[in-house]
Write a structure and sequence with these properties.
single chain, mainly alpha, 2 domains, 172 residues
Length: 172
């Protein structure tokens, strides 16, 4: 990072930017990176907002945004520093999220394979059979449930067809 840009930061802001260096990010788990991402995003938003408000207030006296731009360099530089820091944190968060997604996918596929073989995901090799297969799904779920919206609609439709048929017979 450019030393001139870092010079505009106070101590607390400099500490926040230091936490976004690659060596520091490698020490953090996914939840800590998410929290850091939020803090950096808020800091960036703060200085971007300050810069825009200040430049917009100077437009009438300066005659345009381009000329008002040069008088508000401090907030613009801070926003630039935090934008770079946010990009580093976002990249790291992306890597960690991809890794977690792959681990979750592998875990779910393993559980599905175990269920397909007739064993629960935690069952040992000797425990196979119908009892362990039932432990994977603790009962009927979704459309296979005894009382799901789909089955209730089917029952109502069947009753209505029967009622219409009976009404035609009674009308004869």
């Amino acid at each position: 990072m450019d030393a001139g840009l870092l010079a505009v930061l106070n101590d607390a802001e400099r500490l926040l930017v230091d936490q976004t260096e690659p060596a520091a990010l490698d020490q953090l788990d996914e939840d800590a990176v998410v929290a850091l991402h939020t803090r950096v995003r808020r800091a960036r938003g703060k200085y971007v907002g300050q810069y825009r408000r200040s430049a917009a207030a100077r437009v009438p006296e300066q005659g345009g945004r381009g000329t008002a731009h040069s008088r508000n360099t401090r907030s613009r530089q801070k926003a630039e520093v935090f934008e770079a820091a946010l990009s580093r944190v976002s990249r790291r968060l992306s890597v960690l999220a991809d890794r977690a997604a792959k681990e979750l996918k592998a875990e779910r596929l393993g559980a599905a394979r175990a269920a397909k073989r007739g064993r629960g995901p935690d069952a040992s090799d000797g425990a196979s059979g119908p009892a362990s297969a039932r432990s994977v799904t603790e009962g009927r779920t979704g459309d296979r449930a005894l009382r799901s919206p789909a089955t209730e609609k089917r029952r109502a439709d069947t009753r209505a067809v029967g009622a219409r048929r009976q009404a035609r017979r009674d009308a004869r």
